[in-house]
Amino acid sequence: MIEFSYPFAKNHDNQISFNNGRLCCLPKEYLKQTNQVLLKSFFTKILSESTSQDVIIGIDPLGFTFLNLDFICYIGLITNKSDRGKYNNLSKKYPLNKFDIEYLKKQIKFEYDLVNFKEFIPIDIVTQNLHELRGLNSKISGNIDRIMKIEKEEEWESKFDEQTESVKKIYVGSRLIKFILDNIKFFQPNFFENLKLDYSKFFVAHRSVSKIVKIYRNDFKKGRADIEFTGSSGIKISGDKEYFEILIKILVENALKYSQFPKRIGPKVEFEETKKRLNISVHSYGKSIPKTEQPYLFSRGFRSSVNKDSKEGTGMGLYNAMQISKHFYGKISFETKKVSNDENIDLSWNIFTLRIEKSMHNNI
């Protein structure tokens, strides 16, 4: 069965079933036998009349909000459109099922497009063009390294700082293109389960983090934020450096995206080595991520309601970061530190911390 982020009704051979979502569960009222005839009759009609043109939004007989787009029908949700219906206090009973209606509309369209990817873009054409683009970008990267006269990895930082702004921009552009191309392959089924890193390779973690910070300090955005980077270490970890840098890139990009005042208070990256572990913390100053959403931050396809109206995204970044971290025997945690005790000020430092244990796995 195809799974969706939120509880959903499915019509299979004229049989209606009600199912849990990945990010929140189906309210138990949908499982009561006394409700089955009414609900199945209602959603049989909804799914038989649905189209792929518009998102249909309504209230079901139980008082929950439903959203329908073609064969996808989210159910069991609570929005500002929800009604008392048959039951009272649904909002208090199911706080994890409360979402903004505009956010849900974006999500159902995203999941519909994701399921129907082959209908919109022929895969053979995409694959061919991506292969050509990857090859071209590899040649650009190789030539810019020669222009910068980088012969050893340990020379990268000093050589980069010596370059003109134009050369820096070319390097940054080639790296960002590579990140985009690498990100596409993460959508392959079971990609992370099948990923095999080469643990015979070692690299300096601090150097990789510094590289990502410098790339985003020199990107092409107007009024870009300055990223504060503190801490130092020569510690080495094992595995493929490229995947570690993608992991750090996701965390830094996430912090930039959700910084409330990036020009005045930019993100901070802190690098710390202790006796037992390596800690890399990425801080962003902005709206507090609600406690009800925090358990789902690393779930596939989840997007926080924070800045949901103005920020684009797929909800895959933090999920991908967590999956990559496991291959370095690490884990990412989240915490929020409020900046004021005034309940009317909803601002915090939102902090994601990557912890890598010093162990035989990493041979640190």
Task: Write out key terms for the chains shown.
364 residues, alpha+beta, Heat Shock Protein 90, 3 domains, 5-stranded mixed beta sheet, 3-stranded antiparallel beta sheet, 11 helices, 12 strands
Give a count of the beta strands, DSSP E runs of length 2 or more.
12
- Indicate the CATH class of the largest domain: Alpha Beta
- Shape type: globular
| Tally of distinct domains | 3
**CA radius of gyration:** 23 Å
Helix content: 25-40%
Please work out how many helical segments DSSP would assign: 11
- CATH architecture identity of the largest domain: 2-Layer Sandwich
In short:
The protein has eleven helices and twelve strands.
Q: Can you put this structure into words, describing what you see?
A:
This protein has 364 residues and is α+β, with helices and mostly antiparallel strands. It has three domains: 8-117, no CATH class; 121-185, no CATH class; 198-357, Heat Shock Protein 90 (2-Layer Sandwich). Helices cover 38% and strands 20% of the residues. The chain has helices spanning 33-49, 90-93, 101-115, 117-120, 123-147, 156-162, 165-185, 191-194, 205-217, 241-257, 317-326, and strands at 8-12, 15-19, 56-59, 65-69, 72-77, 202-204, 228-230, 236-238, 268-273, 277-287, 330-338, 347-357. The strands form four sheets. Strands 7-9-10-12-11 form a five-stranded mixed beta sheet, covered by helices on one side. A three-stranded antiparallel beta sheet has the order 3-4-5, covered by helices on one side. It has a two-stranded antiparallel sheet with strand order 1-2.
